[in-house]
User: What shape does this take?
Amino acid sequence: MPLYVYEATDPEKSCPKCKGGFEIPQKLSEEKLVKCPYCHNPIFRVIQAPGLGHSKTDLHYRAKRAGFHTLKKVEKGEYEKLY
Ligand SMILES: [Zn+2]
Assistant: This one.
């Protein structure tokens, strides 16, 4: 079950549980919570970024590709210098 992070919409009215945010396991099919289960004040789901790791990998991949292209250019440049 994925863990979701919830945080109080209004920390001043919230309980210590949701004030700093709390994690709750929920099924994907479950509705997201709008109220804190402890103090019943409004909460919102904190969007965690699972895409962060993905974009990092993508960036690395692109850098690798860019590096490959640069290397090719240098090789070509050196070849041309020999002439
Ligand atoms: Zn609360």
